[in-house]
């Protein structure tokens, strides 16, 4: 019996079932739309789940894909190319998570819905889809970012009908999604509240604050007053507003109030759940999104079943509506769901696009080549060298910069060091570190370090970044290795003004070949420029909370204080002085 309407997409008719009600085991119903070919044969289904609203995802049928920096780019249209999925003979099922869109129930906290894990809801949703007469009983999943994270949560619950997943651009460690090196990132505000090129969550009355639920009004008032003592927070109008009116921004309020890692962020961390996943998993991400790439690699290492890791080229933000990587996705699902032997499993597990050389490197592990960590030392006259400084601090006087708060200036002060031009191609693949010996005159600051590849014509491309809030400098010595530092972020230790400290920044994974004539330039600041070549590729809110007090920074790089970069060279011959 026909129970759908039809849509004409480029001459192809699509059958659309709107507002399906999907029962969860506790009686809550989720809302869903299903798209498929007009004939009523059963097909495998690709499920997409998020709080962004299924009606927004339907714009994939009518809105041409937009690339950043287009003002029409909307970061929340991420469920995939509906017309293409239908053309490839799958059913595309897009659902609203509980507490969002047209679904019932409450949404509270991180990957949690009214005390029910979102993975549990995904299990029920997938098994309901598999039992429908228009589905052949086989299910995969689709979608980028939040939709990608939901795939991992679903797979960890092991629904019998979920045969494989293809995750593009997921985010996993929720603390690292909201605080980079302890520095608050505004992108989650955009994703949740709908600012700066994102429509945000399709909020309902079922979205609640974990902090409001946990604390009495009196206790919460004291906690808010304490959080407002942070001059960085107090100097930013939006955060003052959020903290004073938490019911208007429940989810963002919880993030702002929880500045240290711990139980709330760790709850149902997809990486922690990864060992439960035994179905085939393809992980895909483009370069330029360092924090997500870091988590993607960590997830890849934790998975136990058949798996692939595919790291693509710039730019960091894909089109919206999201349409990329579908060719790879269909090869994956045709093999694992439709049983078509297309050779996808005969290929190496890891594929990495190397910027600069524009080559693909393949292997079965990350990093895909043997690497040797080498130091590039910060030297006087803003130089980087493989040789350390031999002069003491009395001769190699520190570099420095003073940064006024952005409440009184638009200028972000940046200090830089650079290599000579490379005479031969020099490839680096992996994570890295920056050891910065610094003295500040305040109890806290941010360190923002960015590595660029400068071409002879003056054009440049960002290679990787590192962030560290000075009060979060504490290292986990058991997990930290050369070129791979780990900060627990479980407490903040104020800095003693005037004392020289070593700050070790984690540099997010990257893959780049510096071609002959190019040079490596590293920039250090305590805030981000309001606009540059890289930031133009990101939504307007994709920057970090700047320091709210004036800070003088002295950067030491002498024989005793060997400030340096630790980088993953695959090329035997490194840059010379």
UniProtKB/TrEMBL annotation:
Pfam families recorded: Peptidase_S15, PepX_C
All copies of domain Xaa-Pro dipeptidyl-peptidase C-terminal, residue ranges: 330-566
Coiled coil: none
Taxonomic superkingdom: Bacteria
GO molecular function annotations of the record: dipeptidyl-peptidase activity
UniProt keywords, alphabetically: Hydrolase
NCBIfam families given in the database record: CocE_NonD
Record's protein name: Xaa-Pro dipeptidyl-peptidase C-terminal domain-containing protein
């Amino acid at each position: 019996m026909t129970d759908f309407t039809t849509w004409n997409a480029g001459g192809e008719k699509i059958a659309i079932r709107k507002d399906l009600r999907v029962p969860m085991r506790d009686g809550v119903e989720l809302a869903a739309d299903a798209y498929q070919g007009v004939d009523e044969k059963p097909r495998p289904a690709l499920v997409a789940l998020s709080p962004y609203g299924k009606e927004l995802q339907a714009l994939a049928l009518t809105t041409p894909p937009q690339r950043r920096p287009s003002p029409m780019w909307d970061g929340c249209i991420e469920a995939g190319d509906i017309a293409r999925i239908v053309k490839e003979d799958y059913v595309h099922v897009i659902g609203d998570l509980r507490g969002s869109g047209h679904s019932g129930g409450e949404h509270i906290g991180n990957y949690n819905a009214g005390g029910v894990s979102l993975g549990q809801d995904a299990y029920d949703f997938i098994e309901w889809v598999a039992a429908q007469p228009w589905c052949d009983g086989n299910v995969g999943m689709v979608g980028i970012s939040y939709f990608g994270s939901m795939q991992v949560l679903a797979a960890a619950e092991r629904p019998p009908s979920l045969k494989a997943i293809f995750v593009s651009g997921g985010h996993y460690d929720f603390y690292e999604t909201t605080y980079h090196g302890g520095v608050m990132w505004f992108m989650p505000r955009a994703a949740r509240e709908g600012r700066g090129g994102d429509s945000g969550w399709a909020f309902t009355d079922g979205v609640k604050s974990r902090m409001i639920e946990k604390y009495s009004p009196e206790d919460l008032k004291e906690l808010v007053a304490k959080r407002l003592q942070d001059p960085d927070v107090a100097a930013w109008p939006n955060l003052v507003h959020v903290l004073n009116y938490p019911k208007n921004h429940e989810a963002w309020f919880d993030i702002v109030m929880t500045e240290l890692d711990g139980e709330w962020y760790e709850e149902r961390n997809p990486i922690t759940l990864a060992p439960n996943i035994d179905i085939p998993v393809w992980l895909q991400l483009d370069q330029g999104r360092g924090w997500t790439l870091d988590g993607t690699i960590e997830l890849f290492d934790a998975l136990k079943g058949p798996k692939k890791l595919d790291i693509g080229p710039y730019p960091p933000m894909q089109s919206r509506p999201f349409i990329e990587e579908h060719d790879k996705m269909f090869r994956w699902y045709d093999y694992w769901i439709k049983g078509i032997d297309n050779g996808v499993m005969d290929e190496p597990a890891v594929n990495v696009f190397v910027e600069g050389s524009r080559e693909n490197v393949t292997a079965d592990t990350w990093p895909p080549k043997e690497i040797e960590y080498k130091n590039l030392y910060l030297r006087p006259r803003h130089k980087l060298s493989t040789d350390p400084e031999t002069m003491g601090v009395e001769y190699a006087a520190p570099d420095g910069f003073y940064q006024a708060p952005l409440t009184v200036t638009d200028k972000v002060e940046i200090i830089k060091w650079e290599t000579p031009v490379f005479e031969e191609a020099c490839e680096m693949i992996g994570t890295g570190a920056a050891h910065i010996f610094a003295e500040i005159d305040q109890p806290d600051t941010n360190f923002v370090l960015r590595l660029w590849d400068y071409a002879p014509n003056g054009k440049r491309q960002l290679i990787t970044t590192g962030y560290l809030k000075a009060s979060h400098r504490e290292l986990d010595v058991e997990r930290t290795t050369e070129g791979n530092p780990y900060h627990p972020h479980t407490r903040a230790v104020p800095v003693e003004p005037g004392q020289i400290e070593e700050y070790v920044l984690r540099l997010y994974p990257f893959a780049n070949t510096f071609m002959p004539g190019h040079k490596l330039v590293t920039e250090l600041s305590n805030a981000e420029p309001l606009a540059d070549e890289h930031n133009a590729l990101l939504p307007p809110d994709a920057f970090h909370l700047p320091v709210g007090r004036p800070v003088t920074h002295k950067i030491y790089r002498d024989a005793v204080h060997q400030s340096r970069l630790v980088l993953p060279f695959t090329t035997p011959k490194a840059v010379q002085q």
